């Protein structure tokens, strides 16, 4: 048989058994769609995390309490067995370094906010005026936190737009009083809507001066210190200056960690890249099962069509020709199912992007 005859034979055989053909194509399409969708999800999660950290700027360094046991960024970067607290004085000392452009100390906690009988739990972030530029936030109404000494506990707050809508519906929040925990604060600004970033819903934050937050939560320590260097090329030198300054303030002990944005991005990129491959491997199991199903169905088809095979041999067809005809039928069904699965996978990824716009789940 010529290649055209082989293709016609495979097409007629596939259309002669519509239920069998449909089931084989369904199995193959499910396997391919699973690989496409899960790969898109894994890669989308990786790109989301990388984009979130990239949004902080290319010159960011983060100072953490506690020391890592190995180089790079790992679980030890965030938890240390006996960490010594970072303080406002440490942040002020870093701000005086020649290669440092901005410093934003962070003190974070949860508390209740009350306005006119309305009560809800919120995340309170104590920081400084530089936090606005470091996080790329924008003010919709009013102003941001005053530029003042880190130890000054001013009774002012900046709230997210979602909080403003909930607590002061249809009204201006600027100049109004709120109670956070046991502390009364005057609202001086409202952030523009910006959604979720780095696991934090900025539209529902309450931002206060760092000393005010420390007084609320009865602590003198800091959660983190964000530092912006004077340019990306100055990052290595700035990191050395930070380490030297803090070690000088801590009896030459390296009981803190300074990580760069590149280190964070590289680590998350490797972890989520490996996760994407693992998820794709799991999805590929369904594709392998579909392939085995196609093989088994074709073996059954051979036994069911012995009369047809005998007729072909009687007409002079060789064993290799008959084998090629059955392989062409299996390939035709597999390719058709794979194309359907590819389209189905793209539709599934589109549905994920529609449901979660912040997740760039592109196949």
TrEMBL record:
Localization annotation: Cell membrane
GO molecular function annotations of the record: transmembrane transporter activity
Claim: Chaperone is one of the keywords in the record: no
Predominant location category: membrane
Membrane association type: Multi-pass membrane protein
Pfam families referenced in this protein's UniProt entry, alphabetically: FtsX, MacB_PCD
Domain MacB-like periplasmic core: 21-244
A GO cellular component entry from the record: plasma membrane
Domain of life: Bacteria
Keywords annotated in UniProt: Cell membrane, Membrane, Transmembrane, Transmembrane helix
Transmembrane segments: 21-41, 271-303, 324-344
KW Transmembrane (keyword) present: yes
Residue ranges of domain ABC3 transporter permease C-terminal in the record: 282-350
Family in the record: Belongs to the ABC-4 integral membrane protein family.
Record's protein name: Peptide ABC transporter permease
């Amino acid at each position: 048989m010529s290649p055209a005859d082989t293709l016609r034979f495979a097409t007629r055989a596939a259309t002669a058994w519509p239920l069998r053909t449909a089931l084989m194509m369904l199995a193959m399409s499910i396997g391919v769609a699973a690989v496409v969708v899960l790969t898109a999800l894994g890669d989308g999660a990786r790109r989301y995390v990388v984009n979130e950290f990239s949004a902080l700027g290319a010159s960011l360094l983060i100072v953490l309490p506690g020391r890592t046991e190995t180089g790079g960024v790992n679980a030890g970067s965030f938890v240390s067995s006996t960490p010594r607290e970072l303080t406002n004085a440490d942040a002020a000392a870093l701000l005086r370094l020649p290669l440092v452009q901005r410093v934003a100390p962070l003190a974070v906690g949860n508390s209740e906010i009350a306005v006119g009988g309305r009560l809800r739990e919120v995340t309170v972030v104590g920081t400084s005026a530089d936090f606005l530029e470091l996080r790329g936030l924008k003010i919709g109404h009013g102003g941001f936190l005053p530029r003042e000494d880190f130890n000054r506990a001013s009774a002012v707050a900046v709230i997210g737009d979602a909080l403003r809508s909930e607590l002061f519906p249809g009204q201006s929040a600027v100049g109004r009083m709120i109670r956070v925990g046991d502390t009364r604060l005057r609202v001086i600004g409202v952030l523009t809507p910006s959604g979720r970033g780095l696991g934090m819903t900025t539209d529902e934050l309450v931002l206060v001066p760092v000393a005010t937050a420390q007084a609320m939560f009865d602590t003198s320590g800091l959660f983190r210190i964000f530092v912006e260097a004077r340019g990306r090329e100055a990052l290595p030198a700035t990191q050395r200056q930070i380490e030297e300054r803090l070690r000088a303030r801590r009896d030459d002990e390296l009981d803190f960690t300074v990580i760069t944005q590149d280190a964070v991005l590289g680590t998350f990129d490797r972890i989520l890249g490996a996760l994407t491959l693992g998820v794709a491997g799991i999805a590929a199991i369904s594709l392998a099962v579909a392939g085995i199903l196609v093989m088994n169905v074709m073996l059954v088809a051979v036994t069911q069509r012995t009369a047809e095979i005998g007729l072909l041999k009687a007409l002079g067809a060789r064993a290799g020709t008959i084998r090629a005809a059955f392989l062409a039928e299996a390939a035709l069904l597999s390719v058709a199912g794979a194309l359907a699965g590819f389209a189905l996978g793209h539709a599934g990824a589109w549905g994920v992007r529609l449901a979660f716009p912040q997740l760039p789940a592109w196949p």
